[in-house]
Specification:
Number of strands: 7
Number of helices: 27
Largest sheet: 5 strands, antiparallel
Strand order of the largest sheet: 1-5-4-3-2
Low-confidence stretches: 94-103
Distance between the termini: 89 Å
Mean pLDDT: 87
Shape: elongated
Radius of gyration: 33 Å
């Protein structure tokens, strides 16, 4: 609950209350519709406000102005609800000109109309005249809300299904892209691309809560692209109306736990905080964050909610000099992440990378469980800011100290190495991985395969009990070069691999792969391997009888 409606005046700043009263007195706020017994929709002056109440208690509200947390539109709506109690009579409203009409009624547009509109290549087709005229009448102040409503209409049939297959994912993706292209062609004159991407991002966070049986990566890519475009606008400085749309989108991204999981707020919040100086806005955001569940997925160590709360508190400290509470040991890394992301968002790149390096030392010494996620974040920031030396350094740290080695990361690391230093750096990496502290046969095998260090790889295989499949790849690469020791090693690992297979048919299939190498050998070398297999398997085993028949032994 926010407050008791009859006592609403004491919750507003005086200037906001006076502004709301003036708006009410000139009939600038009207009750548009009653959605149910507890939800009321108000509108006026190009603004839309949804109010939820229970009896005399105001539960929540949502205003498209995205301004002051308790804005003058809310005050005007509450004056309207209390006009009889307060004995207030608003002046008769003068008929507004066409230029000052409220938000176009996109909610009355059907899904079919929008789909027909976006599938028709000619934007000025007379069949779409109604929707065309509504879009042309959109003002910059209402652009975000109107675009969002259009995306909602297009996506609405999918919400009824709940689970989407690949064909349905592709269709929804295509419809979103067609709508975006059409709106860009119609409204390309006043930076509508900004509002378009903001509306798309806001609706995508709802859409991504559905279950998908197909590939959802294109949807995630669409979300990432929208964030990149919006960030480019952010860097160029936003207008008052654009900032209002940003704040509105941020509040929508915090409204419930389901939407919170899409992570859109982690992009919107730090950038919003970089320009906002509104104490009420900060309080409202903290209130919304406090209502969300602080659950951390199994695959991450950082708490996005805790990071967000730290960002608000850090900004409050900067703007209002409010004291910062001492951070407990378990939250140190979340605070570091909050500071680093805020530094990146405010353009303090050099300082941000210093924070990254300091944080990494803390990871190595105290917070080792954060290693994988933290280094991935460092690499992502290095790529974004074109810091190839930093990217190379953190990639090398992951290759040596990470639990697993990703081939794509190894390829990228090798690509970044200066040609003159490449072989030396590879040798240093191999030497590091041979140390007992970091030893990993799987990592060494991948690097030695990638660099064609066959002899070194054979030496590593000798330390393993069963690495037949890898050894088979190596001997095929080395052929026709081999010696007796290599043949005996091959026979040993092939026998070990067969012994691990209890089913005779599986042993035959494995031997068929071995024949790609064995049958290339001279007769004496071939018989050396076959004799080893027969001796180990027993002369009367099914496998031995099969080999004698196959090779006439």
């Amino acid at each position: 609950m926010l407050f008791i409606i009859p006592q609403f005046e004491q919750h507003f700043e005086e200037k906001i209350l006076k502004k709301g009263l003036r708006l009410f007195m000139r009939s600038g706020m009207e009750l548009i519709e009653t959605l149910n017994s507890s939800e009321l929709r108000f509108g006026g002056s190009g603004t839309e406000l949804l109010l939820k109440k229970k009896g005399d208690k105001l539960l929540s509200y949502n205003c498209s102005c995205a301004g002051h947390f308790y804005c003058h539109h809310l005050a005007a709506a509450l004056f309207l609800l209390q006009k009889e109690t307060l004995a207030l009579t608003p002046r008769k409203k003068i008929k507004s000109s066409a230029k000052n009409k409220s938000i176009p009624p996109f909610k009355k547009i059907s899904v079919g109309e929008v789909l027909h509109f976006i599938q028709n290549r000619n934007a000025k087709n007379p069949d779409n005249s109604r929707l065309q005229s509504l879009i042309l009448s959109v003002s910059e102040e209402s652009c975000f809300e109107d675009y969002r409503q259009l995306f909602k209409i297009v996506l609405s049939p999918n919400y009824q299904k709940g689970i989407l297959n690949q064909q349905e994912i592709d269709l929804a993706l295509n419809q979103m892209q067609l709508l975006g292209d059409k709106l860009n062609r119609i409204h390309g004159s006043f930076r509508s691309r900004y509002y378009l991407q903001m509306a798309l991002l806001t609706e995508l966070q709802d859409f991504l809560q559905l279950r998908f049986t197909g590939n959802e990566e294109p949807l995630e890519h669409l979300k990432t692209t929208a964030c990149e475009i919006l960030h480019s606008f952010f860097l160029k400085k936003l207008s008052v109306a654009e900032k209002a749309a940003w704040q509105k989108a941020l509040l929508l991204s915090l409204r419930n736990n389901a939407v919170l999981r899409s992570g859109v707020f982690t992009f919107l919040l730090p950038r919003f905080l970089s320009w906002s100086r509104s104490k009420s806005a900060f309080d409202g955001i903290k209130d919304l964050l406090g209502k969300r569940k602080n659950t951390i997925p199994y695959y991450t160590r950082f708490s996005a909610l805790e990071v967000a709360l730290f960002q608000v508190k850090l900004r409050e400290h900067q703007v209002f000099k409010s004291p910062l509470a001492k951070t407990d040991a378990d939250s140190v890394m979340n605070e570091r992440m909050a500071k680093t992301e805020m530094a990146f968002c405010t353009g303090k790149t050099t300082y941000a990378f210093k924070l990254l390096d300091a944080g990494y030392q803390s990871v190595l010494s105290t917070h080792k469980l954060f290693f994988d996620e933290y280094t991935a974040y460092c690499i992502q920031k290095a790529i974004t800011h074109r810091q190839s030396d930093t990217e190379c350094r953190y990639l090398e740290e992951r290759l040596i100290k990470g639990l697993f080695l990703k081939e794509s990361e190894l390829d990228r690391w090798m690509e970044l190495l200066p040609p003159a230093e490449k072989q030396q750096k590879i040798n240093e990496l191999i030497a590091a991985l041979r140390q007992p502290r970091f030893y990993s046969f799987e990592k060494l095998a991948l690097i030695l395969k990638k660099t064609q260090g066959w002899d070194d790889l054979i030496q590593e295989i000798k330390r393993q009990s069963n690495a037949y499949r890898l050894l088979h790849e190596v001997v095929l690469q080395k052929f026709p070069e081999y010696d007796k020791n290599l043949l005996l090693l091959y026979a040993k690992h092939l026998i070990g691999a067969m012994a691990a297979l209890s089913v005779y048919q599986h042993q035959l299939l494995l031997f068929e792969t071995a024949r790609n190498y064995i049958d290339k050998l001279p007769e004496a070398d071939k018989n050396l391997i076959l004799d080893k297999i027969i001796t180990h398997s027993g002369s009367e085993s099914q496998l031995s009888r099969h080999l004698r028949r196959l090779y006439g032994l």
